[in-house]
TrEMBL record, chain A:
The lineage of its organism: Bacteria, Bacillati, Actinomycetota, Actinomycetes, Micrococcales. The keyword Membrane applies. Keywords: Membrane, Transmembrane, Transmembrane helix. It comes from the Bacteria. It comes from Agrococcus sediminis. This is Transmembrane protein. The chain crosses the membrane at residues 32-52, 64-80, 92-115, 121-144.
Automatic annotation (TrEMBL), chain B:
PANTHER family: BSL7504 PROTEIN. Residues 14-96 form the Winged helix DNA-binding domain. This is Helix-turn-helix domain-containing protein. The lineage of its organism: Bacteria, Bacillati, Actinomycetota, Actinomycetes, Micrococcales.
Length: 154, 101
């Protein structure tokens, strides 16, 4: 009787351990698709660069590139799923913070770019655009890696 | 209160592992699941069919741009019933395994 219970307990513990090991294996297979992360960075850079053609002031109208870039991000997100073979769903707090960081950074860089254009320094938008590319690519990678870590943890 | 319930369909080792992987994601590609579990196509198909018949797993095929032939990517996901049954089964295993698990 006692040995049956011990055997059942051991089998159950092994089954639970196998779930942990499978999660480890899956997380190990999910590499950050850096080319697609760079594509998201390029979309962010393009949106920030669109500030160069805007007219800051009373007649300001937000460029339509924002919506197109958003659509582009959705297409890239779909391609990430196809590339990796996994749709991760719930990403976890760290990935959410990284995503929020992308939004805040891009909005801040877009605002700075508008300020530069109003000071007739439109050429400097190339710099803010380059920063948007680098920061967005990096943060997108951080977000993906954090989402994979969320899969790894129980 | 969340109850623990032993599920005979899920309890088979490979089916438990399939559910365990699908539980952590929205959906997985059949090939990624197969490679992660280290089983053959036929073995995985058989167990996925059993889980589908029980209403625990759904499958959806989409075209694959990366393939020149007519093969499609098969996406697998746990249903709401599958998530509930898996969670209850894991709680049952934890109760059996004891406090050290």
């Amino acid at each position: 009787m006692e040995s049956n219970h011990a055997e059942a307990s051991r089998t159950a513990a092994e089954a639970l351990d196998s779930l942990t090991m499978d999660r480890e294996r899956l997380a190990g297979r999910l590499r950050v698709p850096w080319a697609l992360m760079a594509a998201i960075g390029a979309l962010a850079a393009w949106w920030v660069a669109s500030a160069a053609t805007a007219r800051p002031g009373a007649a300001y109208e937000p460029p339509a590139t924002g919506w197109i870039a958003l659509l582009g991000v959705l297409v890239v997100a779909h391609l990430v799923q196809r590339e990796t073979g996994a749709r991760l769903g719930v990403m976890g707090a760290r990935a959410a913070w990284a995503t929020a960081g992308i939004l805040v950074t891009c909005l801040a860089l877009f605002s700075v770019s508008l300020g530069l254009v109003s000071l007739e320094l439109a050429w400097a938008v190339a710099l803010t655009s380059a920063v948007a590319f680098a920061v967005t690519t990096w943060l997108a990678g951080v977000a993906y890696r954090a989402a994979v870590e969320h899969v790894r943890r129980a | 209160m969340r109850d623990a319930r032993f599920d005979e369909t899920i309890h088979a080792p490979l089916r438990l592992r399939i559910c365990g992987l699908l539980r952590r994601v929205d959906r997985l590609d059949f090939a990624l699941l197969r490679d992660t579990l280290g089983v053959s196509d036929a073995t995985l198909s058989k167990h996925v069919r059993t889980l589908s018949d029980a209403g625990y797993v759904t499958s959806r095929k989409t075209a694959s741009a990366g393939r020149s032939d007519a093969r499609r990517v098969m996406w697998l996901a746990l249903t709401a019933a599958g998530r509930t049954a898996f969670d209850a089964h894991v709680r049952a295993l934890q109760e059996i395994a004891g406090p050290s698990s």
